[in-house]
Amino acid sequence: MKKFQHGGDLNSFAKSLDCNINKITDLSSNINFIKPKLKCDFNTLDISSYPTYENLYKIVAKKYKVKASQIELYNGASSAIFTLFRKLALKTCVIYSPAYLEYKKASKLFGYNLQQINRFKNINEKIEKDSLVVFVNPSTPDGKYYDIKNLMQKWIKKRCTVLIDESFLEFTKNKSDLKYLKEYENLYILKSMTKFYSCAGVRVATLISTKENIKKLKEKEPLWKLSAYDMNYIINALKDKKFVKKSTEKNLQNKQFLREVLRQYSFIKLYKSDANFFLIKLKNIDADTLQNHLKKYKIMIRNCDNFDFLDKSFVRVAVKEKKSIKLLQKALDRI
Predict the structure, then answer these.
(1) What keyword terms does UniProt attach to this protein (predicted)?
(2) Stretch 80-109: mean pLDDT, rounded?
(3) Which of 50, 81, 231, 284 is buried most deeply by CB count within 10 Å?
C-alpha cells in the first residue's frame, strides 16, 4: 500500500508515540487549515428521502463559470479518475510525473501502457498519438503552476485526450486552463473540492468538459453518487462568501512565513511552489532520519520517496497555522 499512499497515517503515527491523535501537528496533509463557516445544522438534515442534485449542479457550475451540462460530480477525485480511465479505455496513458499517485494506480488497473515523463528534467519528451495525457496543475508534490500553452498545442497535434487536475488551483492566483475547452473538445478538467474547502471526509469532485463528453459520461453513471451530507456540506461551504478571500490571504501569509523559516537551514533545498505546500530536498540527512527527529515534537511530515523520480531525500511540508510552523522551526533549530 505504501506504493500508492497519499500522506501520513495519523493513527499509526499517534499510536507509535502513544498519544492522542489531536496532539499531532500534521504537516504531511495538504488540506486547507482554514474551514468555511457553515449555517447548516446537520442534526436536522432530512435523510429519509433520496437526494436530488439539481441545486448542487447549479451552484458548482456557477462557481466555475461553466454550464451545468458541462459538469459531472463524483464521490471524490479518485472516483472521477477511475471512472474516466475506465470509460475512455485508451491504449496509452502519459503522466507528467511526479504526480498524484491515483493516476498511476488507475492506469495499471485499467490496462493502459504507461509512459511517465519526468517534468523536472524532460517535460518536452515525445508522446504517442491518441494517448490519455494527465497533467496536474499546480503540480504535486512540488506545487508548481505551469503555463501549458505550448504543451497543449503539442497534445492537440497528437490528438490526445487531456486531463488537467486543478485540485490546488484555488490556493493560487493563477487562471484555470478551462479556456482551452473553447479550442479543444477532448479536454477534461478535474476540480477536487476537498483540498481548498478542508473536507477530505466529504467526498465531492467535479469533472468539467464539453456538453457532449459529459453526456457520454453520465450514460453509465449510477443515479445517486453523493450523500445528502456531502451535498449539503458543499452547498453551505460555497455560501460562505468571505471564505475564499480570507482563506487565500491567510494561506499566502503563512506560506511566506513557512518559506522564511525553511530558508534558514543549510540542509534544506526549497522548491518553488504556487500551492499550499513545499517540496524539500534534504542534504546530508534523509526523510526517515528527519521524521524520527520531528517525532520528539509530535510533528508529522510527508516522506516523498514513493513519488516517481523522487527518493528518500525528498519531503513535503504543508502550510498550516503559525503555531505549527513555529513548532517546526523550534524542532529544526535543534536538529
Answers:
(1) Aminotransferase, Pyridoxal phosphate, Transferase
(2) 95
(3) 81
- Distance, in Å, from the CA atom of 61 to the CA atom of 171, rounded to the nearest integer, reads 19
* Integer CA distances (angstroms), 58 to 180, 212, 244, in order: 22, 18, 19
Other Cβ atoms closer than 10 A to 47: 11
- Residue 113 burial (CB count, 10 A): 12
Helix (H), strand (E) at residue 323: helix 322-333
Cα–Cα distance, 251 to 254 (Å, whole number): 5
CA distance 80 to 210: 16
CA–CA distance, 71 with 212 (Å, rounded to integer): 11
Over residues 280-317, the pLDDT tens digits come to 999 999 999 999 999 999 999 999 999 999 999 999 99
Q: What is the pLDDT of residue 52?
A: 81
Which of 177, 107, 145, 106 lies closest to 276 in space, CA to CA?
145
Q: 50-239 architecture in CATH?
A: 3-Layer(aba) Sandwich (3.40)
**Per-residue b or e along 265-274, where b marks 16 or more CB atoms closer than 10 Å to that residue's CB:** beebeebebb
The domain made up of 10-30+243-333 is a member of CATH 3.90.1150.10:
yes
Contact (CB, 8 A) for 103 and 95: yes
Residue ranges of the domains in the chain? Answer: 10-30+243-333, 50-239
**Among 197, 233, 182, CA closest to 56:** 233
Q: What's the pLDDT tens digit per position in 159-195?
A: 999 999 999 999 998 999 999 999 999 999 999 988 9
Q: Inform me whether the pLDDT recorded for 16 exceeds 90.
A: no
- Count CB-CB contacts under 10 A for residue 128: 14
